[in-house]
Amino acid sequence: MKKKFLSVMAALTLVLSLLSGCGADSSADTSGSADTGSASSQVASASEMVKPEQVVEDDMEPVPGSDVKDGVYQVTVDSSSSMFNITSCELTVQNGNMTAVMTMGGTGYLYVFMGTGEEAAQAQQSSYIPFEENEKGEHTFTVPVEALDAGIDCAAFSKNKEKWYDRTLVFRADSLPADALSNNAITTPESLNLEDGTYSIDVSLEGGSGRASVESPATLTVADGNVTAKIIWSSANYDYMKVDGTQFNCLNTEGNSTFEIPVTGFDYKMPVSADTTAMSTPHEIEYTLYFDSSTLQKK
Fold first, then answer.
1. Is Signal given among the entry's keywords (predicted)?
2. pLDDT tens-place string over residues 139-154
3. N-to-C CA span, the chain
4. DSSP label at 215?
5. Total number of domains constituting the chain
6. On the chain, which terminus has fewer CB atoms closer than 10 Å, C or N?
7. pLDDT single digits (tens) 231-243
């Protein structure tokens, strides 16, 4: 009787051992992703994130790499989250392909993934983009750029929270030099075949605090293929403007600040800067001017 009992116990022990082994094999992670639990648990919920900012503007039109000349440029990147702070960015364009090296304002992220957090949690770890450290000890990420002036999904993996956070990035075309865009990306003075003379044109200003404006329509002058515009500000507190690094001084000493500047192109946000003396010390502020070619009228 005792031998029979021992035999039964031995068989039972063997069965339990086999079942335990099967259970261990079935729980092994063979996905190759960074997530060893459920994918959704690796993605931050809306309540865990700062409310996202709207960075895609209504009038934005995506600019593909084929519309940007080959070169290396400093580009402004708008992020939907203040927690994902990009302090500078270098854009490289070659044969229509664009990549960007984003320098971060902190060291809190281990990876980025060009897609949503849910997609990142399901993806292979080989598709994650790890940070690199530059000579200043800053963290950088080198990412592909599908298009400028377009909302691009970018998930960032937090070192402390161990979760993916959804971000939207916009690489701004209006932060590039005017000659960086190919002729099919903007309307050039040459493409309009403008005769010498004086014209009126609608112009709009963006940038700064949003309180400044310029007089519209503006007066446009065409002479020997050169196009200049008379820009009249809404205040008398500007002493110079810059276009492509060239400074243009104010033309008047009374009334609202007035300048005559070159027009590098139409139907795109032309980057300019203006120095204001309204503050305790002068400040140079970045703006854009949009000259609408459809409103051109010869005087």
1. yes
2. 999 999 999 999 999 9
3. 118
4. -
5. 2
6. N
7. 999 999 999 999 9
| Encoded tokens for 299 | 């005087």
> What phi, psi does 10 have (nearest 5°)?
-65, -40
11 torsion bin: left (phi>0), alpha (psi -120 to 50), beta (else) = alpha
Q: What is the CATH number of the domain that holds 273?
A: 2.60.40.1850
- Asked whether residue 191 falls in the same domain as residue 255, the answer is yes
Structure tokens given for 150: 């377009």
Give just the sign of the alpha carbon dihedral 291, 294, 298, 299.
negative
User: Do 169 and 70 reside in the same domain of the chain?
Assistant: yes
Examine the domain organization and report whether 171 and 191 are in the same domain.
no
| Distance in angstroms (rounded) separating the CA atoms of residues 24 and 35 | 18
Tokens representing residue 267 in the block: 């139907």
Please tell me whether residues 159 and 199 are part of one structural domain.
Answer: no
β-bridge mates for residue 267, sequence order: none
Q: Is 292 helix (H, G, I), strand (E, B) or coil?
A: strand
Q: Residue 283: which domain range?
A: 186-298
